Amino acid sequence: MESVPVYVEIAPVVVLMFAAPAVGVLTALAWRSGRGARRLSLASAFVGCVAALLLGADVLHSGTTWTWRSDALLQPLGGVSLRLDPLSAFFVMVIAFTGAPASLYASGYLRHLDRGLRGRATHALFNVFLAAMWLVPLAANVATFLFAWELMAVSSYLLVVSDPDQEGAMAAGAWYAAMTHAGFLALLAAFVILAGDGPWELEAMRANAAALPPPSLTAAVLLALVAFGSKAGLVPLHVWLPRAHPAAPSHVSALMSAAMVKLGVYGTIRVLFDLLPPLSPWWGGTLLAVGVATALTGVLYSVAESHLKRVLAYSTVENVGIVFVALGFALLMRGYGNGALAAMGLVVALLHTLNHALFKSLLFLCAGAVVHAARAASLEAFGGLIRRMPITAMLCLVGVLGLAAVPPLNGFPSEWLTFQLLLAGARFTEPSLAITLPLALAASALVAGLAAVSAVRLFGITFLALPRTDGARDAHEASATMRTAMAIPAAACLVLGLVPTSVLTRLTAIVSELGLPMGNLDTGLALALPLVGSRLWPVALAALVAGAALAAGLAALAARTRDARIDAAWNCGRLVQSPRTEYTAAAFAEPLKRVFTGFYQPAHEVTVDVHPVSPYFVRAMTVRADLAPWMEQTLYAPIVRAARRTADWAARMHTGSIHWYLALLPIALLLLLLIARWIG
């Protein structure tokens, strides 16, 4: 069902949404006081986020579509054209709801940069980054979309490399720049195919795409998946993500993982479910398989990594894979003509997109507080932080439970619905579905179990036991501003976990706008899938969890009132408990590394320091087990080597001789003429 554009009185809110970041940029660069520049610039970003939330809520509530066009801007490329429909409004709200706490968090997190130019540049780029991300779902023609996409890429790249003292920042920026610009070229080629000889408006592409021959349609789909998959972090295009997130400031990492990555999801939905006609079912099966591979790869690395922010980055890869499992299912069912199940798959994908944005932004903000307090980023350097950072620990626990899909947090409803979808699809009599969907269900169950292990490891190694370094012993609680910022997504995680049906009505309206009408999943407080017959009461689950916790507390209180002899605990013969006897992050993951040795391909190195008197007296033993980056070595190392050889060959051509350069001109002209004749 195609929506009819109508004009509503929301233009002033759109102006405020973009004017506030513009004021933030000017304030960051021109205000004399570094402290004042930080506060006013980030306050402007916060105001822009509030305006974007109001705008998205108005469009989602009314179901209208707002349009605006200016031929004066970007005139050589076709002008600026904006269109805000319910799908765009949903992603605008996701960006705004994660950007608001990030803006507030940065006000306390970046105090140490008040005296330098780097702080001002970071605040200005943060505002540009926000505005560019809002512009992507608003874009209604190719020129606006590509301009916003590139502005988002450049501003985020500069934020990734903004800290010259951060180890590996420049290498991470190089990987990110290479992947994002490769995606940009693929996106441009996809739009060229979809537009054909017609206008470069997204609305016009829908009619042209329906008439494309199969080879052109296949090329357009592949290019779009490469372009948007590289931004979302689909395997094997995810290699930039675990590098860029640890290098960027924590509030930027939160926004990249929670919002920017989701624009890859937006682009995939916009092209595959809006601009293109129903595709063959094998496209859905392919996307489903890629989603499963992405989820498995992400969760396996998140279990084994020891860098705190890299663990969260791989967790983002895992959750993007879960989103694409639902999208692949929706595309598969659409290909088979089952619109109801296709619509449900799309709703579940949108729900998990929102849920992941909330708990992952919370976790990255908590990670920034931990790294800042402990002056380290490795899990091995933490321990015992729950005593020194109790509020941060409790807020992080909310995010960890959401990550592990434990009720009553928000990660549980969307993952439960994903399992129910795969069960519903497996009831079809198609032989391919009878094989594919049970396998996908088994893989998703494995991902869910490993995600729980990763969450336990993340929280336990960081906050429990004894401090393992001086930084952990001297850690302090985050500032009040940072704690308030972390509390915002934490509260949202709890609300969406208890009443997920509160957003499902709006999500079904979005899916209906894309031509997949369906019945509501909202049945009051119960979550139900009609075609499966399953029903879930999140509030009842929360009551059970609360009751169990209350019973445990009462039992502990009753035990304290009894007469009991208190003595020292048995420590296996040790007199004093020390950090050397604790589980480390590496030890926690070692059993899984052994089970999945074929995937990890670890390189073990053992160093033994013996006493000079006798080799039988060992003074120290060091074990190092690095994970081999086999995917990069297999796929990207040959490309990097070829690029270096090409660069060396090109460098040899720069001899400095003007005669040689003049001789190359007619050769280049002849090649261009031959290419033009071949294309024509």
- Mean pLDDT reading: 86
- Helix-strand makeup class: mainly alpha
Shape: globular
**Number of continuous helical runs:** 26
Q: State the major sheet.
A: 3 strands, antiparallel
Counting DSSP E segments of at least 2 residues, the number of strands comes to 7
User: What is the end-to-end distance?
Assistant: 39 Å
Which strands sit side by side, in order, in the main sheet? 3-4-5
Helix content: over 70%
Strand content: 5-15%
As a whole number of angstroms, the C-alpha radius of gyration is 27 Å
Stretches where pLDDT falls below 50 for ≥5 residues? 1-8
What topology emerges from the helices and strands here?
Blueprint lengths: L10 H20 L3 H29 L3 E5 L9 E5 L1 H24 L7 H22 L3 H19 L8 H27 L6 H9 L3 H19 L8 H7 L2 H26 L5 H24 L3 H28 L3 H36 L10 H4 L1 H14 L7 H15 L5 H33 L6 H4 L6 H19 L2 H13 L8 E2 L2 E4 L4 E3 L1 H24 L23 H11 L1 H4 L1 E9 L7 E10 L2 H6 L1 H17 L4 H22 L1
Antiparallel strand pairs: 1-2, 3-4, 4-5, 6-7
Quick gist of this model?
70% of the residues lie in helices and 6% in strands. The protein has helices at 11-30, 34-62, 86-109, 117-138, 142-160, 169-195, 202-210, 214-232, 241-247, 250-275, 281-304, 308-335, 339-374, 385-388, 390-403, 411-425, 431-463, 470-473, 480-498, 501-513, 538-561, 585-595, 597-600, 630-635, 637-653, 658-679, and strands spanning 66-70, 80-84, 522-523, 526-529, 534-536, 602-610, 618-627.
